[in-house]
Amino acid sequence: MGFDLEEFHYKVFKNTLWNIFGKIWYFCVMLFVPFYLLSKIGPNDYGIYIVIKVVVDYMNLLDLGVSTSFVRYLSRFYSLNDKAKFNSYIFTCMIFYSVILLISMLILLLIRGKIAVFLDISNNDFSQFISLSVFYCFVSGFLRIFGVVNSIFSSIQRMDYSNKIAFFVSIAEVSGMVFFIESGFGLKGLILNTLLAGVINFAVNFYFSYKHVPIFSVRHFKFDMDILKNAVSYGGKLNVTLISSLIASHFEKIILTKFLSLNYVTFYHIASSLAINVRNIIVVFSSALMPGFSELESIGLLENLKRLYLKATKYMIIISGFIFGYLFVFSEDIVSLWLGKNFLEISYILKIIIIGYFINTFLGSVSSLVGQSIDRTDIQMKGAILNGILNMSLSYFFIIKFGFKGVAYGTSISLIVAAVYYVFAINKVIKVSNSDFWNGFLSVFYGIFFSLFSIYILKLSLVKHFSLQILYLIVTLFAFIIVYVGFMRLFKGIDNYDKQKFEILFRRFIGL
Predict the structure, then answer these.
(1) Dihedral of alpha carbons 64, 363, 278, 389, sign
(2) What gap in Å lies between CA 77 and CA 89, rounded to an integer?
(3) At 325, is the secondary structure helix, strand, or coil?
(4) For 202-233, how does the pLDDT look when each residue is reduced to its tens digit (9 = 90+)?
(5) Model's pTM, two decimal places?
(6) 502 vs 505: CA distance, rounded Å
(7) Are 94 and 146 in contact (CB under 8 A)?
C-alpha cells in the first residue's frame, strides 16, 4: 500500500485543530486562575504555592526522562498492534513511577528545611512551606503513576478524545478550586483539589481507553525490565534536555525568592505563564507533525520532510508574529483589563520575555520535532543545556544589576541564543542551507514588521477615543487582523497555494 500524502495532510490538520481547541480552552482557564487567586489569597501566598511547585518539579527529574518516551513507545506498539508490549510498557511505567514517588518523598523529607533556609523564606511562611511541600510532592508523584495511561489517546493521534477529556477535567478542577478556596481551605485546598482532579482525569482516560483502544487490556499488564531499559535509554538524553528546560523555566523564581520577595515570584510567574501558554497555543500548530515527520523519515521521503519542515516553519512565523505581536503592542492594556492597574508591572516583564519566546517559538518548535523524529535528540539536549546555563548566569547577573526586570532580560536572551543554535544544527543535519532558510522567510518578516508598525500608529490615534477598554481591544484586534493579512498577502508571505490548501483541508474537516 502506497503512502497517501493527502490523507497524511488531513490527519495532521485534524489533529492540529483538536489540539488548538484544547490549548485555547486551557489558556482561558489559565487567565481565570491568577485573577481569582490574586483576589482571594493574595500575591504572597500565591508565591508560596508557586515555589512549592518549583521545588517538587525538580524532584520529578528523578524519573530519568521516562515520561518523554510515552508517545514514542505507545504509538509504536499501537501501530504494530503489539498488545503484549503495549500493556507491558504501561504497567512497567506505573511500577517505575511508584518507586520514584517513594524516593522523592524520602529526599524531600530530609532536605525541605534546608531548602526553606536557602531561599530565605520568612518565619511567617516557613511552616506553610515545610508542611505543604511534602503534601504536594506526594500528590504530584502519585498522579505521575497514571501519566502513561493519560497519554494513550495523544500517543495514538486521537486528539479528539484527549482534548475532550481535558476539557471535562479542567471544568471539574476549576470548580473544585473555587469550592476549596471559598470554603477556607487555602493552599492546602488547592493541593487537595489537584489530587482529586488528577484522579478524575485518570479514571476518565482509563475508562475511554478500555472502551475505544482495542489493544489496551489490564489482563496483559506485565513488568518488563527490557522495556524499562529502552525507555530510560531513550529518555536519557531528553532528560538532560528536561533538566535544562526546568532550570531555565524555574531558576528565575528561585532567585526572585532569595533576592527579592514572594510577591515578585507571583508577578513573574503570571507574566511568564501567559507567554508560555500563548507559546503552547502556537506550538500546537506543529505538535501534530511529530508522528508525520517520523513517518516520512521512516519510509525514506526525506525531500518531503524538508519541504514540510520549511513550510511548517513559515506558518509558525506567521502565527507567532500575529499573536505575540499583538500581545507585545497591547500588553499594558491587556494586563490592566485582566488583573487591574495595580499589576501593570507584570506587563513590563511580559514585553521583555515576549521577544525571546517569539524567536524561540518559530525557530525551535518545528526544528525540535524534526530532531526528535530523526533521532537527533542530542542536538535538543545541547540546545537545552546552552539555554539553562545562559539563563542561570544571565538572570543572576541581571537581577543584581537591573532588579526585577533583569530576570526577564536573562530569560529572553537565553531563549533566543538556544533557538538559533538549534535551528542551525538541524539545518546542517538535514542539509538545508542556512541562507536559503532565512531568505525564504524574508517576505514574512517584512509583513510582520509593517503590520506591527501600522497597528502601533493606530493604537496611538485610537486610545483617546475609547472609554471602555474591552471594546478598544476588540476593535484594535480586528483592525490588526485586517492589517496583518493584508501585509502578508502584499509581501506574499501567504501565497495562493497556502490559501487553497487550507480551504481544502478545512472543508474536508467540517464535512463539506
Answers:
(1) positive
(2) 9
(3) helix
(4) 999 899 888 888 888 888 888 888 888 888 87
(5) 0.79
(6) 5
(7) yes
